[in-house]
Amino acid sequence: MTDNHPDLDQELERLSFTKAYMDHLITAQEADQETLKKRQEDTLSKLDFKDSSLRYQEMLAHSNFMKMSKDQLENLKHLRKKPYFARIDYHRKEKPDQEVFYIGKVSLFDRETQQPIILDWRSPLANVYYEGRLGEVSYEAHGERYEGALSLKRQYQIEDGELHDFRDIDVTTKDELLQDSLSQNAESRLTEIVSTIQEEQNRVIRADLRRPIIVQGAAGSGKTTIALHRISYFLYSMRDIFKPEEMLILAPNRLFIQYISEVLPELGVEKARQTTFSDFVREVTGIHWPVDSQQATLMKAIESEEPQEDSIALWMAGYKGSKEFKQLLDRYIQILKKKYLVDQDFMMGEFKIKSGKAIKRLFIKEYNYFPYEVRVQKIKSILQSELRRKKKQILSKVAAKYDQELDKALFGMTDPAKRKTRVSFLITRKEEKLNEIKKEARTAVSKYMKQYPKLKLTEVYQELFSESVFSSLLEEDSESIREMRKLTSSYLKQRQLSSEDLAALLYLKSFITGIAKEDQAKKVVIDEAQDYSYLEIYSLRRAFQTDLFTIVGDLAQGIYRYRGLKHWDQLKEDVFHKVNYLTLQKTYRTTIEIMNAANELLMLMPDNLPKAEPVVRHGEKPLFLEKQADWMERFSELLHHLEEQKMTSYAIVTKTKQEAVQAAEELKEAGHDFQAFHEEQGMSNRMILPAYLAKGLEFDVVFLYCDQYPYRLTELDIKMLYVAMTRPLHSLFFIGNEPADFLLTHLDSSLYHTDAQV
Ligand SMILES: Nc1ncnc2c1ncn2[C@@H]1O[C@H](COP(=O)(O)OP(=O)(O)OP(=O)(O)O)[C@@H](O)[C@H]1O
Fold it and tell me: With contact defined as beta carbons under 8 Å apart, do 685 and 716 qualify?
């Protein structure tokens, strides 16, 4: 603690003042709660079964309000433990004096003076703290730029409402709070980092919210964390326009969703919808056929002896995510569209209500922006209302015509017998005619609408792969394409899908029916975006009709490269307009020693991928442990030693799923209980999982384990190894038969230890 700092008393006083103010608010809120509860009980006691639904609605509104203020109360109590984490002293040019601002997770205003007691970290002025060095600093708010001078940036460590420490940051001192935060242990969840957001990260969070953003960030550079903070910033800045439920977060798998979900309440974004691409498409299309996951395709390819280039499954996955396939779908969509081009006149009996030309025009031109089925519904309403309008006119016209004839007969015919017959004929005929018209009117619209097709998504997709349709759409032909058609066709016949079909289904659906209102998202965040195919992202963009995408990923970790994005230009050029492209090069997760080894591995890859720059934090070099007969004892010793060092979360990462299962059994026999991976089971502090599932996660200690499946010098294996090596925060071990199992022989031997050396 900074015991003899001249500002210590002032800081302690400030904290007490803030806490006292919060206490005052808490007491007031609690009293409000009591009153509300009483009122609710009162209403309830007076309620009887004859009461109107209005009364019930009133009660519901009441209880919602109670819940809201209960949440507010909980938040306030939680906040009291750490009301703020930083302070800035800022002198805005046009103000007479310098002002002091305390920055916290949410703002708090003095109710009487309206002065901020705490400034929200997302507020425009707080940007000065993240961006600014001491000296001249400006900030932008409500479209205006304010100039000023920053004379102090101070960070606080407050725990349970007690001030533990505070430090001033200027250009020369390193950000110690960041160092402290990084040396902590990994819980089985992601944490919130508002107090230590770095400049390059802040730029991503606050980048123009109305433009799509793509972030290429190194492993551990904070992409996931920053993407979530950007949503929080988005919701704060656009709170009048967007609701949290309108946000969609797409994560790579369910395990990952569990991993991020706990940080969401802290950031106020827990109501954002979180799902995977596969679950999302299945839900919006309502297709619940079994789907072969992309992991399954990857695993099969990894476990098989066949060279990956020869795998038809991988080739198919690549093709079905490609731009070529999208173009083929576009041609198919044109064929489907033709089915909707009805151009018959809309008649009610012999009366024309609307010309076929005008109806077709509505479909092609006026309603161009809507999906086909929506256009059809709109045409239906137009026809209904025109019919209603014209029916009246037609009925009175027809009636008038008969009345005229009647007049003629009554007053023009002299022979009474003939007149009688004629009049009675006309009266009956008039009645009949009017009834006929009314009857026609009742069914005219539905009869006309029958001309429009009723397309079923699965059937449409199946039809695409029929030989005649497919070959008519194809620009080039090849053996692989023909095989893909046949395989897909027979798969679909068995009512089965592979995950690569989902993007195409979503794409087709967006043209045919569109996405239901409740499934619409106004802002989309895609994590691990390198693993998405071109068509997956294109179909999402098309389905939501919005450009508000935050896309974060790392091409170096693109283990699904056969299907995923090869470079970001594909999205920048083709999918979005005016993309903001940013990079995150600094990496925060792991130590310099681990990152150096991982960086060197990257160099084995053909693409010229930029190395990640670790922030200054040292640790042990990775250690290779030979899997000899006594390896389990050595492993137990290591675990014991690491536990003494207070490491809490451990993962054993294998290359294949099969190896993970075998290793889990072997370890269990030796008394080490590591939870075998399972997407649904969630995170634990001792896990064993294949590399593809470890993507995005982190642990204090990682053991890369390899017995039967050594990593080969292929792009896919290098990337998987890279993903696995960048998971630990503190320590990395290789357990295998020889260093070559982990391609260590291709790295400089000074980058790692072997068991014999220690
Ligand atoms: N500014 C920061 N202050 C403190 N910790 C940070 C900061 N930025 C990132 N971290 C920490 O670094 C780790 C990596 O962050 P995150 O998982 O978001 O990175 P990522 O880029 O998504 O990683 P990967 O692509 O390897 O999965 C997390 O533990 C996160 O809390």
Answer: no
By most ligand atoms within 8 Å of CB, the mutation choice from 589, 591, 722 for ligand 1 is 589
Instruction: Please tell me the distance from the alpha carbon of residue 374 to that of residue 368, in angstroms, as a whole number.
Output: 10
Give the separation between CA 166 and CA 11, rounded to whole angstroms: 9
Q: What pLDDT band is residue 560 in, cutting at 50, 70 and 90?
A: confident
Round to whole Å and give the CA distance between 12 and 18: 10
Cβ–Cβ contacts within 10 Å for residue 679, how many?
A: 16
- Strand partners for 155: 86, 167
Residue list, ligand 1 pocket, CB within 6 Å: 178, 181-182, 191, 193, 196-198, 201, 217, 219-225, 554, 557, 588-589, 696, 698, 726
Contact indicator for 605, 554 with CB cutoff of 8 Å: no
**195 CA closest ligand 1 atom index:** 3
Sheet holding 549-553, edge to edge: 273-276, 247-251, 523-526, 549-553, 213-217, 580-584
pLDDT tier for residue 407 given thresholds of 50, 70 and 90: very high
Asked if 55 contacts 47 with a C-beta cutoff of 8 angstroms, the reply is: yes
Q: How many CA atoms lie within 13 A of 77 on its CB side?
A: 11
Please name the helix (run of DSSP H) or strand (run of DSSP E) that holds residue 216, with its range, or none. strand 213-217
Q: What is the pLDDT of residues 113-127, one digit of tens each?
A: 878 899 999 999 999
Instruction: For a ligand 1 pocket test, name from 85, 225, 260 the mutation site with the most ligand atoms within 8 angstroms of its C-beta.
Output: 225
Cross-strand pairs, 140: 145
